[in-house]
């Protein structure tokens, strides 16, 4: 016994897609066999059956219905599989022997064109790396929008990680070479996506496709770009007509933000639950289109370092802010625009339906309004867009005159082509309508002619139209005209020659109509596809416009100011705020100044208890610089920002257990990376260096890190520390200044003022913070005893007095403190039941934010009780 012909065909096809799950089309199902069937039945919870394959044992099999396959495919893609779709490519009724089948498409996580896995506000990237000992090249593409980027550098592995984390690709291809294995392992530690090896393929197709654009690429860039292109051709099996714009860029032309910093600053998602809410992107996103949202994300991921380019964006934003009326008009128009980037890709790939064309038309309808609005502006960016803005009138006219305004989803069921566009279509429609009218009147006419009141005209798929007469009335039928067709239990069905003729006309007309409508639709879609360059250019301009208006809107709403941009090393922020935290706690956010320069204010050493606001302050400085460099106004009263080439942050303890590194090891690797890569134009944020080891070790490391920055790197640095000993450095280095965050001691407790001041504190208030956090009073009392015995009673007394003296409170702070004092006076821990609630608090499971909010709510509750 040998394999059945179908199984032979299956195995032959499977040979060409060993790394994919093969969806093998059998009638109305996609079937999977052997190992694929076992995997899919497990992953998707499907029943594993078997099919006779000609061998003794049946082949394991499972299947999904063709019409609902998308959901199943999405689930597999989400789990990191690749799916090869194998279709019947000839009509089974015409096939001699077994139906011919071919793989028509390979769906992979990084090459999705449509479906629920594509997020509107996020590009879906695939990337290809060629990593050599001398450097690497990286190519990145979003097939659904047609964006294609290429870069290369002689930097090391860390730069690659940073660059990849900018794109966060869904799939990474590694070109096979001596470094490939090492790279695979390292990338797997960092990225939870599909990572595969590919053979280098410098095929001609790439050169032919991009023509002259490839001249700007060096050899290593060609290698990753051509290999990626080849992979896309193999998976998409189309000419990739939507990928037209090859953008080569230098990594160094943008602010370098390493992957930890992206994470720490919560640029596009929060650290804890990876949500957009709570990120900078969330605050800044007032875009009206998906294209704008994606562009905004890209801008946040890649801040500029060129003064001229930054100022161009800022000027455009300012002009929009100064013209609120036109800004609102622009927002109204943009709101009506669909995702033209992804629409045109679908149109080019031939997967767009008539509704997609109508969405494109409705979007184009807004373009003349937008051009009108743009005519009011003079800033370089906006007037450049105006001058080259194509309103695509011809494409609008084409769709408008040809496609019905409310077409069905399917492109094979007709009702797509508008009346008056094509005389043949109109003719068939008239024929079909007239025929149907004739039939509609037939029942009445025949009733009158025969006198049979119960006579009915009906239709079924097998016999077509018929006249039905009950057996009791058969004697009254005109035998010469009626031809018997079907006998039922108590009726007979007839046709007449005339009815048959009209029926033929209707059916032919409908058949021809469907065919013609489909052909015309495909032709129109092709004509629109031919204009892909023009449509993509407008889509890009719209995405920029939308991002700029989003900046303007958010700046107006949140009272941001236009930053001045300088290159003399001064970062001078007056009354700066944290863009995200101020949204969370609104009125109570305390603004702070920050002054950094290249000489006396290079390094700010910040002391203050936990929860005082050190991290918030440092992050807010970094975010304000970043916002200025993406061209957005900033949350401050006034800001003068020196362009920063890199931002580094070392914040919090993030255990990297999966990679076998301890918290302290991770911390030290991050510090080491920063010290090796920072320049004098960088901004460094250190939050508690040296915490993960013994006090003396930690202090020594923190101390020497600060000295190294002061002596060698000379980068502007915010350094928060609980090692008060470090504040001594101010006396040795003229570039170091001590700052502290104010707290007010009151009744054995402390109040956070969140105000940054010159000077140091030399008390940690650790026990007071622990008390506020709800640690049982027994623990607190014991801790105090231990502290006293550690420090010696007298000495600690002296120390606390000294600390209070060191906090210099100016008048404004004093007022705030008095307010708080009054509130706290009312707050009698022993009296009310709130105390119980506090002592039962599960503090370990709270974020600082939740803790803050809780404390804040407590204050309000107590106020209420006492008032
Ligand atoms: P630290 O780093 O000193 O431990 P954080 O910066 O984490 O303190 O701040 C602790 C909490 O205090 C934050 O959750 C935040 O809500 C609040 N906070 C910080 N800075 C301010 C401020 N300037 N105004 C109001 N609240 C603030």
TrEMBL record:
Residues 682-698 form the DNA mismatch repair proteins mutS family domain. It holds the Pfam family MutS_I. The keyword DNA damage applies. The keyword Ribonucleoprotein does not apply. PROSITE patterns: DNA_MISMATCH_REPAIR_2. GO terms for molecular function: ATP binding; ATP-dependent DNA damage sensor activity; damaged DNA binding; mismatched DNA binding. ATP binds at residues 608-615. Keywords: ATP-binding, DNA damage, DNA repair, DNA-binding, Nucleotide-binding. One of its GO terms (biological process) is mismatch repair. It comes from the Bacteria. One of its GO terms (cellular component) is cytosol. Belongs to the DNA mismatch repair MutS family. NCBIfam families: mutS1, PRK05399.1. This protein is involved in the repair of mismatches in DNA. It is possible that it carries out the mismatch recognition step. This protein has a weak ATPase activity. This is DNA mismatch repair protein MutS. It comes from Thermobrachium celere DSM 8682. The lineage of its organism: Bacteria, Bacillati, Bacillota, Clostridia, Eubacteriales. The gene is mutS.
């Amino acid at each position: 016994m040998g394999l059945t012909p179908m199984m032979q065909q299956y195995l032959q096809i499977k040979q060409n897609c060993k790394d994919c799950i093969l969806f093998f089309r059998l009638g109305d199902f996609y079937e999977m066999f052997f190992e694929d069937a076992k995997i899919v039945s497990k992953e998707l919870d499907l029943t594993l059956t078997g099919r006779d394959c000609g061998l003794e044992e049946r082949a394991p099999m499972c299947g999904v219905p063709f019409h609902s396959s998308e959901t199943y495919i999405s689930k597999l893609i989400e789990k990191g599989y690749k799916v090869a779709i194998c279709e019947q490519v000839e009509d089974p009724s015409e096939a001699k022997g077994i139906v011919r089948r071919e793989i028509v498409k390979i769906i992979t996580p990084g090459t999705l064109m449509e479906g629920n896995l594509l997020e509107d506000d996020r590009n879906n990237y695939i990337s290809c790396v060629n990593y050599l000992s001398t450097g690497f090249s990286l190519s990145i593409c979003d097939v659904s929008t047609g964006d294609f980027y290429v870069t290369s550098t002689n930097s090391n592995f860390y730069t690659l990680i940073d660059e990849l984390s900018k794109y966060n690709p869904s799939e990474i291809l590694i070109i096979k070479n001596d470094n490939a294995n090492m790279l695979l392992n390292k990338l797997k530690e960092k990225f939870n996506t599909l990572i595969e090896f590919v053979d280098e393929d410098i095929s001609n197709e790439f050169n032919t496709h991009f023509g002259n654009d490839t001249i700007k690429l060096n050899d290593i860039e060609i290698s990753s770009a051509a290999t990626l292109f080849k992979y896309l051709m193999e998976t998409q099996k189309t000419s990739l007509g939507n990928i037209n714009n090859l953008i080569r860029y230098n990594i160094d032309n943008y602010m370098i933000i390493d992957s930890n910093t992206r994470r720490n600053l919560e640029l596009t998602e929060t650290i804890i639950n990876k949500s957009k809410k709570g990120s900078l992107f969330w605050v800044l996103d007032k875009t009206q289109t998906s294209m704008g949202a994606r562009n905004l994300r890209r801008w946040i991921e890649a801040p500029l370092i060129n003064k001229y380019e930054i100022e161009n964006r800022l000027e455009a934003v300012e002009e929009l802010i100064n013209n609120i009326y036109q800004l609102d008009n622009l927002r109204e128009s943009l709101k009506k625009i669909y995702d033209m980037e992804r629409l045109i890709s679908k149109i080019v790939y031939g997967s767009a339906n008539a509704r997609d064309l109508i969405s494109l038309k409705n979007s184009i309808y807004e373009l003349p309004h937008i051009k009108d609005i743009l005519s009011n502006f003079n800033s370089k960016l906006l007037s450049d867009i105006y001058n080259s803005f194509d309103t695509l009138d011809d494409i609008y006219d084409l769709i408008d005159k040809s496609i019905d305004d409310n077409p069905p989803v399917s492109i094979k069921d007709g009702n797509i082509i508008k009346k008056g566009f094509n005389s043949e279509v109109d003719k068939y429609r008239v024929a079909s309508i007239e025929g149907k009218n004739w039939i509609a009147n037939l029942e009445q006419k025949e009733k009158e002619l025969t006198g049979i009141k119960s006579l009915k005209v009906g239709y079924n798929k097998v016999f077509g139209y018929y006249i039905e007469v009950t057996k009791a009335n058969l004697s009254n039928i005109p035998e010469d005209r009626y031809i018997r067709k079907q006998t039922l239990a108590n009726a007979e069905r007839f046709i007449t020659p005339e009815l048959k003729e009209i029926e033929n006309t209707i059916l032919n007309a409908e058949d021809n109509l469907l065919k013609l409508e489909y052909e015309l639709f495909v032709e129109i879609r092709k004509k629109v596809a031919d204009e892909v360059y023009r449509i993509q250019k407008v889509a890009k301009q719209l995405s920029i416009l939308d991002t700029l208006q989003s900046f303007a809107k958010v700046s107006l709403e949140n009272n941001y100011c236009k930053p001045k941009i300088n290159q003399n090393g001064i970062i001078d922020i007056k009354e700066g705020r944290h863009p995200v935290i101020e949204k969370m706690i609104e009125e109570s956010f305390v603004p702070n100044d920050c002054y950094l320069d290249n000489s006396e204010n290079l390094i700010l050493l910040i002391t203050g208890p936990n929860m005082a606001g050190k991290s918030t302050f440092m992050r807010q400085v970094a975010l304000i610089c970043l916002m200025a460099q993406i061209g957005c106004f900033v949350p401050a009263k006034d800001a003068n920002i020196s362009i920063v080439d890199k931002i580094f942050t070392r914040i919090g303890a993030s255990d990297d257990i999966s990679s076998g590194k301890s918290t302290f090891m991770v911390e030290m690797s991050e510090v080491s990376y920063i010290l090796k890569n920072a320049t004098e134009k960088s901004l460094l944020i250190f939050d508690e260096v040296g915490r993960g080891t013994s006090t003396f070790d930690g202090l020594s490391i923190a101390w020497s890190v600060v000295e190294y920055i002061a002596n060698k790197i000379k980068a502007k640095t915010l350094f928060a520390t609980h090692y008060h000993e470090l504040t001594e450095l101010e006396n040795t280095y003229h570039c170091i200044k001590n700052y502290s965050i104010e707290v007010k001691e009151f009744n054995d407790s402390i109040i956070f003022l969140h105000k940054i001041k010159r000077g140091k504190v030399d008390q940690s208030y650790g026990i007071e913070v622990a008390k506020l956090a709800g640690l049982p009073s027994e623990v607190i009392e014991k801790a105090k005893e231990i502290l006293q015995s550690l420090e010696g009673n007298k000495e600690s007394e002296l120390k606390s007095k000294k600390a209070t003296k060191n906090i210099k409170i100016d008048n404004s702070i004093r007022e705030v403190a008095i307010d708080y004092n009054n509130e706290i006076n009312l707050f009698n821990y022993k009296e009310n039941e709130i105390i119980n609630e506090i002592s039962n608090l599960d503090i370990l499971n709270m974020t600082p934010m939740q803790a803050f909010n809780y404390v804040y709510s407590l204050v309000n509750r107590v106020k209420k009780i006492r008032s």
